[in-house]
Amino acid sequence: MLTVSQLIANGELEPALQQTQQQIRQNPADAKLRVLLFQLYCISGLWDKALNQLNVLRDLDASTLLMVSTYEQVLQCEALRKEVFAGRKTPLVFGQPQEWMALMLEALKLESDGNHPQAAELRNLAMNQAPATPGSIDGTPFAWIADADVRLGPCLEAIINGRYYWIPFMQISKIQLEKPTDLRDLVWLPAHFTWINGGEAEGFIPSRYPGSELADDARIRLSRLTDWQPVAADTAHGLGQRLLATDVDDYALLDVRSIELAGAAEPQ
Fold first, then answer.
1. Is residue 96 part of a domain?
2. What stretches of 143-246 adopt beta strand conformation (E)?
3. Is 0.85 topped by the overall pTM?
4. Residue 117 lies in a domain
5. Residues 57, 135 within the same domain
6. Total domain count, the chain
7. Which InterPro entries match (predicted)?
């Protein structure tokens, strides 16, 4: 019989979940098993069940209180995130609001209404307005950086102080990314941000594109690959691990340890 770790390594998420649940029935006070179950629920987007495990952990083991309070907020952000990409709500925007950012958000609303041509038109306009941000990824210099998903482009999703933001790359001086060590890091990667004004913050970058948790392919849920789903002519949405695009190369988020940005250059 395979262990839970072996099942996860094989991408057999449902058997891993069932085996963990069975182990908890036999050892209901085992906090480590509860943390594992919480993470498995997060991988598959079972947010309410994940939250329930956090509530159990709060009463079960005082040493988990910091993790519990942190991820309660992260789960709330995930619910807002879904609404943002459905065009029904807007994220907090870091820094001075930019006209091109408003265009990007309006494009989400148009897309949710099925108006793909106009959404693409607004995004093209926004991309032309947004300044390029040069810098380097793990020491490799680039002239510009963007999320490879057209819905985000010059913006980075992040959860800071328990709140969901879209952050223009031009507002960031440096991002230090932790190497994934737990299953939950495949959903939200811990990051340390330094802003262009010198301020700093701890937070998370969603490791996956929205909707990845519902994919049949376990590799997408586990951030092991990035797939592109066509939604209209010349438009595709990402699933699986976040991909950062530059003029030099594309970078899978979980492989990146450091991003240094040198300030925005005005669009030509």
1. no
2. 145-147, 155-160, 163-168, 172-177, 188-195, 200-206, 226-232, 235-240, 243-246
3. yes
4. no
5. no
6. 2
7. TagJ (IPR009211), TPR-like_helical_dom_sf (IPR011990)
